[in-house]
């Protein structure tokens, strides 16, 4: 029950950081950090498929309401929640089965960056792809890549802190 309360606080913190800080951060037209995806990425490894999809949907709906986007966050976040077990298995293999979080002691930086980078790239591609709907193709691709790299950096820093907290 204590872990549930901690994840509720983590959810609230991620939503507030996204809504109050990252949505108002003006770094450039290419850098749009969608940091809130860190919540889905750092959910416990043993989180089942249905709770994962429900939490992804809840996070997406909350972010859509706060950001005023018509379902973009929900589509992207549910896709990440759906793909997470597959990507986790492909990038981390059997090492992750003995961990409570996807960035535990047995997981090295390379495996975590592949896992998080793949899912973040998927999230950003869905979000910005539907946001632009094919217009300005090269700008959209650049925005996906640059925003993904920036978001990956933020997620990696959060995961490092999460690793210390989970001990």
Give a description of the structure:
The chain has 167 residues and is mainly alpha-helical. The chain is 71% helix and 0% strand. It contains six helices and no strands. α4 packs antiparallel against α5. It is globular and about 45 Å long. The two termini are 17 Å apart.
Please write out the topology.
Elements: H1 2-22, H2 38-41, H3 49-67, H4 72-92, H5 109-132, H6 137-166
Helix pairs in contact: 1-3, 3-4, 4-5, 5-6
Main pleated-sheet profile: none
Proportion of residues in β-strands: under 5%
Calculate Rg over CA atoms.
15 Å
Average of the residue pLDDT scores:
89
What letter string, H or E per element, gives the SSE order? HHHHHH
Secondary-structure-based class equals mainly alpha
* Outline type: globular
Total beta strand runs: 0
* Distance, first to last CA: 17 Å
Tally of alpha and pi helices: 6
Low-confidence stretches: none
Helix content: over 70%
Short description:
This protein has helices at residues 2-22, 38-41, 49-67, 72-92, 109-132, 137-166. Helix content is 71%, strand content 0%.
Characteristic terms for this protein:
167 residues; mainly alpha; 6 helices; 0% strand; globular
């Amino acid at each position: 029950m204590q872990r549930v309360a901690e994840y509720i606080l983590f959810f609230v913190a991620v939503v507030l950081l996204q809504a109050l800080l990252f949505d108002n951060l003006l770094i450039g037209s290419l850098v749009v950090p969608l940091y809130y995806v860190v919540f889905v990425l750092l959910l416990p490894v043993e989180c089942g498929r249905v709770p994962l999809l429900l939490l992804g949907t809840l996070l997406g709906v909350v972010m859509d309401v706060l950001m005023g986007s018509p379902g973009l966050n929900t589509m992207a976040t549910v896709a990440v929640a759906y793909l997470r077990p597959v990507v986790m298995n492909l990038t981390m293999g059997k090492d992750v089965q003995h961990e409570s979080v996807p960035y535990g002691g047995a997981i090295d930086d390379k495996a975590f960056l592949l896992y998080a980078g793949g899912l973040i790239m998927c999230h950003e591609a869905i979000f910005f792809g539907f946001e632009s709907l094919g217009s300005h193709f090269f700008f959209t691709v650049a925005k996906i890549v640059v925003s993904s790299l920036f978001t990956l950096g933020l997620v990696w820093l959060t995961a490092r802190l999460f690793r210390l907290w989970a001990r």
